Amino acid sequence: MTDNTQPNNPLHGIKLAAIVEYLVEEYGWDELGYQINIRCFNENPSVKSSLTFLRRTPWAREKVEQLYLRTISR
């Protein structure tokens, strides 16, 4: 039996939707769009459209995850 936990991954078990919702709550869309300059945060932003883009765009998802980790560590 293999153990599927990822003890060294701080994002393990956290859904992308929860990350985006947390960042929107923490920063608001305007500041989030400033922190990470991508269209899904700056033009008609919504959680749904952001998730669609982030799931298809690994570099953008990485930026969002890094901002989330920096935010929760302060």
SSE diagram, text form:
Blueprint: H1 16-35, H2 39-42, H3 47-56, H4 58-73
Helix pairs in contact: 1-3, 1-4, 3-4
Describe the structure in your own words.
The protein has a domain at about 25-74: SAP domain (Transcription Termination Factor Rho, Rna-binding Domain, Chain A, Domain 1, Orthogonal Bundle). The chain has about 70 residues and is an all-alpha fold. The radius of gyration is 13 Å and the shape is globular. α3 (about 45-55) packs across α4. The chain has helices at about 15-35, 40, 45-55, 60-74. The chain is built from four helices and no strands.
The backbone outline, from C-alpha atoms, is globular
CATH class of the domain at 26-73: Mainly Alpha
Q: Can you count the helices?
A: 4
Helix and strand string, N-terminal first?
A: HHHH
Strand content: under 5%
CATH topology of the domain at 26-73: Transcription Termination Factor Rho, Rna-binding Domain, Chain A, Domain 1
User: Which CATH architecture of the domain at 26-73 would you pick?
Assistant: Orthogonal Bundle
Approximate helicity band: 55-70%
Number of strands: 0
Helix vs. strand class: mainly alpha
Name the CATH homologous superfamily of the domain at 26-73: SAP domain
Major sheet description: none
Regions with little confidence, pLDDT below 50 for 5+ residues: none
> Would you tell me the overall average pLDDT?
92
Radius of gyration: 13 Å
